[in-house]
Write a structure and sequence with these properties.
It is built from one helix and five strands; from the N terminus they run E-E-E-E-E-H. The chain is an alpha+beta fold. A five-stranded antiparallel β-sheet has the order 1-2-3-4-5, covered by helices on one side. A hairpin with a 7-residue loop joins strand 1 and strand 2. The mean pLDDT is about 90. This is DUF2969 domain-containing protein.
Length: about 80
C-alpha cells in the first residue's frame, strides 16, 4: 500500500453578501473553489450545504465547518 503524506491545504471562510443582522451565511473556499456553505438564521439551527448540493443540519458553525472539510477530504482531494 502506498504511503500518503499529509498535505497542508488552506481553507478560507468568507462571509457572503447575504449576511444580515439575523442571517449568517459563510462559504468555505479551497484553491478559489467553493467547497460548501454554512447558513444560520438568528440562533436557529445551522444548515450545511455541501458542494454536491446535499444539505445537512449541524449543532454549531464549528461542526458544520468540520463536516464540509471531511466531505472535501473524502471525495475531492
Amino acid at each position: 500500500m502506498a504511503k500518503r503524506s499529509n498535505k497542508q491545504i488552506e481553507v478560507e471562510i468568507n462571509e457572503t453578501a447575504k449576511n444580515t443582522k439575523d442571517y449568517t451565511e459563510l462559504e468555505l473556499v479551497v484553491r478559489k473553489k467553493v467547497i460548501g456553505k454554512i447558513m444560520q438564521k438568528s440562533n436557529g439551527p445551522v444548515t450545511v450545504e455541501f458542494k454536491s448540493g446535499k444539505k445537512r443540519t449541524a449543532r454549531s458553525v464549528d461542526e458544520g465547518i468540520q463536516l464540509i472539510i471531511e466531505e472535501y477530504n473524502l471525495h475531492d482531494e
